[in-house]
Structures are given as C-alpha cells and as structure tokens.
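## Example record

The block below lists the input lines for one assembly entry, exactly as stored, with component labels intact.
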Amino acid sequence: METILSPTMQVATNVFINNLMASEVFVRYHQSQTLLDHDSQAQALLNQLSQTQTELRKKQTDNSLSKDEIESLRALQVQARVNVVIQGYSDAQQDVIEFLREINEEINQLLGIDFASFTKRSGCC
Amino acid sequence: MNDQVNEDIEIASTSIVKQSARDFAAALAETPQFKAFEQAAYAFRNDQTAQQAMQALQQKQQSLRPLMQLNALSNIQRGELMELQSSFTSQTVVQEYFSAQAELTTLCQVLGDELSGAIGLNYAAACAASCCG
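Predicted structure tokens for the full assembly:
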C-alpha cells in the first residue's frame, strides 16, 4: 500500500528540503558538481581510473596482477587527488555529508530515534 | 564566476536549516505512525514478561554466537533457540511493537526517498557512520 504524506508532513518536508538545498554547503556542493561535470580533463581522468580499477580487480581475482599495473593505478589515484576540480568536488561532498549528519542529529534529538536508520531500505547501505 | 552565482542565490543560514529540520521532526512526531510507535515502544519497555523473554533470547544468542557463525548448532541448541524466539515474538506487546516499527519505517523510507531524490545523495548512507554501521 502506498504511503501518502499528510499535507502538514508534505509542507514540512518541502520547506526542509528547500532550506537544505539553499544552505551554503549544498550550494557549494552543486557548484563543484557542475564544474566537475563540465571539466573534460577531470572526467577523462575519472573514467580512466574507474576502468583501470575494474580491470585490475578482475586481474586480482585471476591472480594475474603485476606490480607495474598496481603502480599505474597508484599514479592515476595521485593524479585524481591533485586535480583541483576533482578534489574540490570531493571536499564539498565531504562537507555535505558532515552537514547532513549534524542536521540528522537535530531531528534525532527531537524524535528520540535515529531518523536516518529508519529511512534505510533493506540491503547493504 | 562562483561568486557571481553566490550573489544570485539566496543562502539559507545553518540556523534556518536546523529550524526547518526541527519543524520537519515535529511534523513527523505528530503522525499516527510515530505516535503508535511511541505507544508501542513504551508498552514494550514496561512489559516485564516481554523484557525477560527478550533477555533470555539475547543471552542464548550470545552464548551460541560462535557456533551459529560456524553453522554448527546441534538440533537441541537450534530447538532451544527457536523456542525462546517463539516465546518472545508470540507476545502481543512484541508483535504490536514490531508492527508499529514497520509502519513507522515505511513512512520514514518515503520521507528518506524524497530527501535523497532532492539532494542527490542517499540520506541514510550519508548519515551512517560507516557502511552498514
């Protein structure tokens, strides 16, 4: 059966979401996301990193992973870490997560339950 | 360019966000699902028989955990565990608590989906201390 939110609950949810989205940390997060989305160099680096990780994971399962391949993965990881756009996005995301935890704590204090745990769908994370 | 964007956007202060979070929590606290959960939790906490049944089950689970992890329970041990589980979950106060918890979880999941959809992040995962924590 579909759960329908009461008008009061819906309004409170909308106001909460709107304010959350308008907070400084979220504005910065979305700006850094837009920058990342439009930076072809950063995108190429992330794609290459993702592909390499997938390939090496397969090789690790087959026990055919070489030292050079591990080194090439490390080099890509270093490149990603020093990329200003990727790092900016990563930092902004971390700030958002910390802010969400702080806000969730505010909700928990009033309700006496861990609200975030109750929102969890079954399955790992 | 970013500064220009910031000038065009109205920023909500942390205190405003926290106030709207508290208003959101207050609205949730007024829902029938939350009130039913609170009542059921109170009844469960204050029911001595249910609490004793829960403790007995937990103690047995704790003592058998190493064997359970190895999937090495004997039939007798499995039977004892099932009996304790059954005597715990067959109590009305326990069933009402689990039912109220499930109803509240369904409502919170809907709210969590709205939040996650809007912010572009999984709310539960973001707030968790670590994976599955």
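DSSP finds six helices and no strands in chain A. Helices of chain A lie at 7-21, 24-37, 40-61, 67-82, 84-111, 115-119.
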